[in-house]
Amino acid sequence: MTDPAPAVLLRGGGVVADDGIVRADVLVADGRIATVGTGVDVPAGTRTIDCGERLVLPGFVDAHSHAGSLVFDEAVQHGLLRQGVTTIVTGQDGVGPAPGDGSYADRYFAAIDGPHPRYRGGGVDALLATYDGTTPVNVATLVPAGTVRHEVLGDDDRPATPADVEAMRSLVRRGLSEGATGLATGLDYVPGLYADTAELAALCTEVAAADGLYVSHMRGGYEGNARAGLDEIAEIVRASGVRAHVSHLHAPVELAVDALTELAAAGAPMSFDAYPYSRGCTILSMLLLPAELARPGTEDLVRAVSDEPGRHRVRGAVLERVLGRADLGTGWADQITLSHVPAAEFHALQGRTLAEAAAATGTDPVDLALDVLVDSALQVTVVMRVPRPRTADELAPLFRLPGHAAGSDGIFVGTHPHPRAYGTFARYLEDYTLPGRFGWPETVRHLSTTSVERYRLGDRGTVRVGAIADLVVVDPARVAAGSSYERPMRPAVGIEDVLVAGVPVLADGALTHATPGAGLRRDGSGTGGR
């Protein structure tokens, strides 16, 4: 058994209360907050952090993260902590290492999640154990429904039989019993898109029984189909009694606000995560290819384009898909930027739009995309620009809804990632809190407390005596996102001291190399594994 960490005193910072900010000392001992107040009796050997004009906030929770396999990388740790993120929720979009041996997720989502370096099977319990004492941040996971379906049906496009459904329910039930926070679907990815509403509702009965959360990347995209996706989630809620959460809600603001308000009044309340950027990011295969060609591996695509008639058919299918999307349309090749391209021949194209890359290589955007996908085994990530970016004022009504939780959808793979991976939480503070669109109590709820409550992450998400001491010290005069679309990997500024379980993990802006993070388990007492 390791010795307890020395006590830490956060001296004189601002602590957010319901009615404003009060100056107080925060004493941390044995991983929890021991005292909040003035005139604190400080034990001998206590480490002191002078907060000055800075604020002491609960650690931020990234409600939708793709860093679960990369969180062992110090550059990723630094990128998270400089934003104040102390906990991430993984297993998103229906794809993740467990259950199974991790090979399906590595093969399909390597361009989004990266391969997990330590998990080789054993289920959710074994996956969560890889994070215990090995990383400076906490990691929770969902049971990924696409991975579950793959374990039972492979990538087959067919309805699940009653026996298939029971086998999937068993896997979901086991994952929840081992500490998963809920179930995640990715209904635009293979094989999740083959699951019908009844199948999903059956799986969600297990989630409801465990008081887990159903988290859904909705079916059929967002911009032009958000209401249909929300209605399907509502149907699943009514059929199973599950609590529901919408992943990376990206839709016309008025439509989203009206729909969520109406569904809540009709008995299907939903929380959701969103990020303060207009551009999206995903794998190029899902964006361009018909589902039958977007399955993991390149065999289907290589076979389809092996002769000129086949390539002509695939080109037509690609154009039909992109021209039919409300967020792309006729200028689609100018709106898609190559983010991660592992194929050596095309590696230099990262950071260019498909139109620019096609011009540089003397080819057509569709042909270039197909060649890049084949040579990269489909492991290509892109950033998508939208025709009209929404301003902070336009997005604020959506973010003000009580069910909103901050989620970066951050992807750390590649040399030119979306800047949301390194900037989301600082940008919330910069664009919404500091200009007064959010008050500080509202900020704490959206960036920390709501996710803690929805995902059942234990006694954290607040600065009060007895709470787990995941804490962030924020300089409101300096905090800002450093990342941009041009320089997406620059760290945030204004957050230089962070504690996890009472242990300093970021000090003066640098990693301390302490690893007090844990794989957070959901359990009936809500202790989050501590």
UniProtKB/TrEMBL annotation:
Q: Pfam family of this protein, just one? A: Amidohydro_3
Specify the Amidohydrolase domain's residue ranges. 47-505
Q: Which InterPro entries match?
A: Amidohydro_3, Metal-dep_hydrolase_composite, Metal_Hydrolase, Metallo-dep_Hydrolases_sf
Top-level lineage group: Bacteria
Protein name, entry field: Amidohydrolase family protein
